């Protein structure tokens, strides 16, 4: 494990392990010198070598990064410990830090046998040195191995859980950032659409009416009169500003409609991606639609298709755009699990998808219907009227010119 990633608790545990190893080696040396053992000098030398091997492994990055280096280091440390164990039975206590090192650095299939061999070596050394036998000789090393196994396995379980939660938190943070970006983007698009509607329904229509009224006034005056000249200039200014307002409306339209038709934008919604296979079909003879119509139909299609992907569990869906003599209709049909429309509308958790689609359609004088039942898929249909020139209203929802000269406004 990289020392830079250690928590304060883990740093403290690592320091305790270093102190435990140093203290147990020092204990073996002190006991050998205190008992006046003839090989006390050898015990001191081997203990120093064992401490040096341990310190080298603690400082080498390779031991922490690769299993092979860790195994070689543990083998060298084990050999020096066995030599020390052969010299003095007091070295058996060094088995306790060795348990932790073996269990932490080796894979499970090797660490558990290594800990068992270490415990057996410690017990065998004590017996081989002819020390008096008692239950603690056997219970101590075995109990120490069991405690080490339980401690290391518990730590590893906690570490895995901590890593899982850390990854989950990172995913949540990334998801929140993506959601915030999506909400900002959606808010930007919604504001663009609102501004486009406001400009179209107020400024553009007002300029159109002014232009028509000025043309009507111009016809009542002699062509060469100064008043007619001023009116002509005013009408031209109104016409220029009307064209500029229409350019603003086009620029504020959804990006999907900037460089193509509504049919093209709907067809791009059907490109392969996660979720059901989506097919687009066009029926009837396409006619040019006002920008509010195109925006509303595209947004309704996007919202309906998003609901299909998120909630329907469908394998197929179809978007159909139908042009008729007096109306244009958009249908979005899927073969998903379906639902009860009345239950969704009545639910407090229903969200704003269906009400928003219905509101878009009704704001343009259209109708919005939803047909669905559990297990029978769902069908969303919106129909917008296409008024003719003599019907008293225009496709963009504005009243025909009060002077009867609405044809000249184009």
Report on this model:
The chain has helices spanning 8-34, 40-59, 61-65, 67-87, 95-105, 108-128, 135-219, 226-251, 262-269, 291-312, 341-346, 353-363; strands at 277-283, 316-323, 327-334, 367-372, 378-385. By secondary structure, the protein is of the alpha+beta class. Among the domains are: 3-133, no CATH class; 260-397, 2-Layer Sandwich (Heat Shock Protein 90), CATH 3.30.565.10. It has a 5-stranded mixed beta sheet with strand order 1-2-3-5-4. A hairpin with a 5-residue loop joins strand 4 (367-372) and strand 5. Helix 1 runs antiparallel to helix 2 (40-59) and helix 6 runs antiparallel to helix 7 (135-219). The longest helix is centred in the middle third of the chain and has 85 residues, at 135-219. The chain is elongated. Mean pLDDT is 76; it is low at 346-352 and 388-410. Keywords: 4Fe-4S, Cytoplasm, Iron, Iron-sulfur, Kinase, Membrane, Metal-binding, Transferase, Transmembrane, Transmembrane helix, Two-component regulatory system. It comes from Streptomyces purpureus. Its cofactor is [4Fe-4S] cluster. It catalyses: ATP + protein L-histidine = ADP + protein N-phospho-L-histidine. The chain crosses the membrane at residues 12-34, 40-63, 70-88, 108-127, 139-158.
């Amino acid at each position: 494990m990289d020392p830079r990633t250690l928590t304060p608790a883990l740093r403290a545990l690592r320091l305790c392990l270093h102190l435990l190893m140093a203290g147990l080696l020092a204990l073996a040396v002190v006991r050998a010198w205190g008992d006046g053992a003839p090989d006390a000098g050898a015990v001191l030398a081997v203990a120093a070598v064992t401490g040096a091997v341990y310190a080298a492994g603690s400082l080498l990055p390779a031991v922490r990064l690769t299993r092979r280096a860790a195994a070689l280091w543990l083998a060298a440390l084990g050999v020096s410990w066995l030599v020390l164990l052969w010299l003095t039975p007091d070295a058996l206590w060094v088995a306790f830090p060795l348990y932790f090192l073996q269990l932490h650095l080796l894979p499970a299939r090797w660490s558990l046998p290594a800990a068992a061999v270490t415990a057996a070596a410690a017990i065998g050394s004590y017996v081989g040195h002819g020390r008096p036998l008692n239950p603690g000789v056997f219970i101590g090393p075995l109990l120490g191995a069991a405690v080490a196994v339980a401690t290391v396995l518990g730590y590893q379980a906690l570490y895995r859980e901590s890593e899982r939660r850390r990854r989950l938190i990172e995913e949540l943070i990334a998801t929140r950032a993506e959601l915030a970006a999506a909400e900002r983007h959606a808010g930007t698009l919604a504001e663009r659409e609102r501004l486009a509607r406001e400009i179209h329904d107020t400024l553009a229509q007002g300029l159109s009416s002014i232009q028509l009224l000025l043309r009507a006034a111009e016809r009542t005056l002699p062509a060469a009169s100064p008043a007619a000249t001023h009116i002509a200039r005013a009408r031209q200014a109104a016409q220029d500003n009307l064209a500029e307002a229409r350019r603003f409306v086009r620029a504020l339209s959804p990006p999907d409609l900037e460089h193509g038709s509504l049919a093209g934008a709907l067809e791009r919604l059907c490109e392969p991606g996660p979720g059901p296979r989506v097919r687009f079909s066009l029926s009837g003879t396409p006619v040019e639609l006002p920008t509010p119509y195109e925006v509303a139909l595209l947004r309704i299609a996007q919202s309906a298709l998003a609901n299909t992907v998120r909630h329907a569990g469908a394998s197929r869906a179809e978007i159909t755009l139908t042009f008729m003599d007096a109306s244009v209709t958009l249908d979005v049909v899927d073969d998903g699990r379906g639902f009860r429309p009345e239950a969704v509308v009545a639910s407090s958790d229903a969200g704003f998808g269906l009400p928003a689609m219905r509101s878009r359609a009704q704001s343009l004088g259209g109708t919005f219907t939803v047909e669905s039942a559990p297990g029978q898929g769902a069908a969303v249909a919106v129909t917008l009227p296409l008024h003719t020139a003599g019907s008293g209203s225009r496709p963009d929802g504005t009243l025909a010119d009060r002077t009867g000269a609405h044809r000249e406004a184009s």
